[in-house]
Amino acid sequence: MNKPLYRTIKTLSKKRVQVARELAILYEKLYEKEEMICDLNFQIEKLEESMDCKKYFALTERERKIIDLRNEGKTLKEIAKEVGLTYGTLRNYVMKLPKDV
Predict the structure, then answer these.
(1) Which of residues 80 and 5 earns the better pLDDT score?
(2) Domains of the chain: which residue ranges?
(3) pLDDT of residue 30
(4) For 97, which DSSP code?
(5) Lowest CB count within 10 Å: 29, 57, 93, 99, which one?
């Protein structure tokens, strides 16, 4: 066989293997990104189902913080301490918050 032709074929074969490896890596990265996007879409859907976003963001920062702390499972006493209100004031405050948020 012709040596230059053999070298060319051998070089092309090595490059083909290298390109195939790089392509496999890119497909793997693409798959990971698609998984992340699916996870984010699922989380967004869950949030939209669990609360009316417009109502939530129409609340004041303090009201949102109280709701978030309540959703974390904190008691009213713990929340009152964290936001700087008395227990009674916080209880009255919570009673005035929309029930569906």
Answers:
(1) 80
(2) 1-50, 52-101
(3) 92
(4) S
(5) 99
Query: Contact, 12 vs 4, CB < 8 A?
Result: no
> Is CATH 3.40.1350 correct for 52-101?
no
Please give the structure tokens belonging to residue 5: 């032709």
Asked whether the CA dihedral 82, 86, 87, 89 is positive or negative, the reply is: negative
Query: pLDDT tens digits for 1-59?
Result: 677 877 888 788 888 888 889 999 999 999 999 999 998 988 888 777 766 667 777 78
Nearest-10 Cα torsion for 67, 73, 75, 80: -40
The position carrying tokens 């998984």 is: 35
Entry pTM: 0.46
DSSP string, 22-86: HHHHHHHHHHHHHHHHHHHHHHHHHHHHHS-HHHHHHS-HHHHHHHHHHHTT--HHHHHHHHT--
